[in-house]
Structures are given as structure tokens and as C-alpha cells.
Predict the 3D structure of the following.
Amino acid sequence: MIERKGPADESRLPPWWLPSFTGLFLGFTFFVLTFTPSLVPRPPIFQGLVGGLAFFIGYAIGHGGVVLWRYLELPEVPRPWRRAANIVLVLACAIAAAVYIPQAAAWQDEVRARMSMPPAEPANLLLVILIAGVVAVPLMLIGRLLIVGFRAASAIVYRWVPRRIAALLGAVVFAVLLVTLVNGTLVSATISAIDRAQALTDVTNPPGASVPAEETRSGGPGSQIAWQDLGRAGKRFVTEGPRGAEIEAFTGRPALEPIRVYAGLRTADSPEEQAEAALDDLIRMGAFSRSILVIATPTGTGWVDNNGIAPLEVMQGGDVATVAVQYSYLQSPLSLILEPGRSQKSAAAVFRVIYRYWKSLPEDKRPKLYLFGLSLGSLGSEDSPPIHAWLGASFDGAVWAGPPFRNRIWRAIQRDRDERSPPWRPVFEDGSNFRVIGNGDSATESRDDWGQVRIVYIVHPSDAIVFFEESMFYRQPQWMIPPRGEDVSPLLQWFPIVTALQVGIDMMLAAAVPPGHGHNYAVADYIAAWTAVTAPHDWNDEDAEQLAMQLDTEAAMHSGSW
């Protein structure tokens, strides 16, 4: 009688508790490669984080490859040859570690030098390894538990079907149950918990914020939006920014009081109702009699970068009204992952309400209409105008800074750019509608033949939020092909899986660099963009330099004024 084998053929599969040598080798290889440079400098804690993730993924691939090989019952290497191969692999790991790890400090300092950052203190290798272990070990334990669960599911199915089919069905059933549990319970609970925590923070006042004394600010005298309903980011937005007297002192000419309208999540129950409340405040303040109206889409928490709006208010003599509506309590990365589509839905609702009223006004009596968005705000702002708003009674332009890699129009510009232009500074068609600047570039120095709609993207080549792409796991991205951007290290190399993990971690550090690099967009960038888009009168390069210096100084002082 032929003995029937178990569902996973335990004689061919390693015990669930026994480490995989192939997995350890591939995991260590990935770990060593993470010491190579990427887009921004990495402190030890983040080096350990990316190293731990890389080790776990390498281990999982190596171990999974062995399991699949044995599942397919492919011939195995004889034991004596296997031992010799293991010795060779150990020596290869030692050589790789000896070559790559000692150079890590020099690589990191080279990246820091490109961003005008001082050299870092030598990283403690033991600290990096400790952090990597703290990350990798729990993940590996979870992986082991998943293996146990898979084998248990396969054993149940094996009562009715052959071994191989049982293993496959067991994996499918276990995966479905796991995904259902995670998505239906854990994710929802996590979102709710984070949202509640952030909502409590949102009611607090940011440092230096106070109820505006001007009638041209939401939350101030006569405003239909209460101060306590603005949220933390909204209170900061209406407190910051230049006043009319400050603008007059800078330009030497009479100036108006800039209008800033903001509707927080507590203002109303839906994006449409929030937009209507903001519209009422705009009308009350006389915003539609101004020369320029800006619809600014915030980042995840509701933050609107003052450095993105203040330059426009100054160069236009205060003749500007800006409106923004909050759509989330979460930080942008969390909002992007946990609340997909929320920024686009809110931005579309706000644009629809404001645009409808704006379009109803006589063409010669309404302000020029512009859009603004930074980071996740640009994602929502990009998708906010419907197709008819690009034609006929069209809005006039936009400034979008640091567009995330998921931005639809930005990706199309990169894909369909002039082949002679690099992906980090793409030239799209004739440049009449879309232009890309950054790192001190100007959008007006090469050509003046703007079209009806003027769109300027501000992009830094070292911004991981802009240049991350899923295909990096298996293919080198085009932006890594020389010539590279000014602040991207020539020492950066592409490795499958590893580079994608590095750039993924870079997204967490993208704003922790000096202005003009990564995801930290400088005042000078915004001045150049708004100059190109709005063509202010009586404005020159000297004015731009002085304004940039003044705004940078004020930002460094964390002042509530401009």
C-alpha cells in the first residue's frame, strides 16, 4: 500500500521554525545594499528602518523561493555541493559588507554636501543593526505565524483534494481570510483611532495664533465662520501672511488688505457645505472685486504653505483673495493611503461651488481665477477642474508644487515630454500651457508665448514624493539615467527592490532638508512661479530677491507675521 504524503509534503519542506539559509543570504545582501546613497540623507534610525525592511523582504523572497522550488518538486542540489555553495555565499556576504558598509558615511556626506548640509556624525553601526533587528525580527515572526496558518489551512483542505491542490487552495483560503480580517477590522479600527487622535489635536491653537482683527480674515469680525471651527491649520493660515501696511512698506505703493478665507472640517458636514460657507465669507469680504482669486487646496492636515501665498499677495499689492477648505485631520501620507480620493473629492466640490459663482459674474467684473496646491494639495487641485473649466470660461492658471507621483497630469507631462528634456525638468509640447521649474529656475526666461491657461509645476529633482514609482522595484527609473538633477548624487545606483525601499523611506525624510531641495519648497521657487503665472506689474528681479530674503527671515523666526 502506498503511503499518502501530507498536504505540504513535510519531508520536502523545512520545519516552520528552522531559518532558511537562502533567505538569510538574500536578506543580508539587501541589508548591505541599503547603505548606498539615495535622494536625501538618512539618519541612523532611518538607515536601520530601511535595512530591517530590506532584510525581511530579502529573507521572504529567498525562503519563499525555496518553498516554491520544493513544491514544484524540482531537482535539488546534492548536499555536498549545497554546503560548498553556502560557504561561497557566506564569503560573498562578507566581501559585500566589507566593500559597502565602510563607504556609507562618505556616501551620506556626499548627498548632504549637494544640499549644503554639514557632514553628519559617523553613524553607529551597532545602533543601525539594532534598529534593523527591531524591525525585521517581529516581521519574521509574523511571517512564521502566517506559515503555520497556511499549513493548517492546507491540512484541512487535504481531507478532500490531492496534496498540491490542497496546498494551493489552502494558501488562497488563508489569504482571503487574512485580507478580509485586515481590511475589514484592523484597517478600519486604525483609521478611526488615528482620526480621533488627530481631531483632538486639531482643536488646539498653534503657537502665535490669535483671532484676526481684520474683517478680511475668516474667524475675524463679521466672519460667518467661527474661529473655533477653523481647525489648527486654518487658524495658522488666517493668522499668517502680510497685512496691507506691511505690503505698502515693502513696495512703497498703496496696498489692499489681502483676503484669506478658510473653512475647517467643523464648519459643515460635507465638502459642498464647507465650500458654500467659504463662498459666503468670500462674498461678504468683497473677494470677487479683487484682481486675483486663488483656490488653495491644503495638504492632509489642512495646512496651506504661507510661503506659497504670501509672495503673490505682496507682488500684487494685496489685491488677492485666497480660499481654502480642510478635508482631513491626517498627515498627507496617511491621508493618501487611508483616505484615497478624499483630497480630490473635496477639491472638486470647492472648485465647483466657487467656479459656478465666479462664472456667473460679468467677464470684465470678475477676478482672474488661479489654483494652488502643495504636495497632496496639488493632487486634489489637479483633478478639481472639470473638462469644461479648461475651455471657454476657463480658470487662468495654477501653481502646483511637489506633485506626488500619483498626480495624473504631472505623470502625463513626464511621459509625453520632449525626449530632449530630462524627466525631472520635462518640456511639454511648446511650453505654452505647462512649464516646470525648480532650484532657482525661471518659467519666463526662455519664452513669453503663454497660452490661455498658465500652469507652473515646481519640482526638485531630489524630491522622492515626486519621483517614487512602483516600477522601481523591478526597473530603473528614467530620472536615474544621466544627466541627473543638480542635487541628485551621481553615486546613487539602482538595485531591484532595494532602491524602491530607499526612495520609499526618502519620502518620510523629503521635507527634512534645506529649502530648495527634496520636498522643502523655497520662497524663491514660489516667487518665480507666481511671477510667470500672474505677470505682476512693476516687478523685477531685485524685488524678487528682497522679498525672498524677507520671507525667509520671517519664516526662520517662526513669526505669525509675514
About this structure: Strands lie at 259-263, 292-297, 320-325, 368-374, 397-401, 434-437, 454-458.
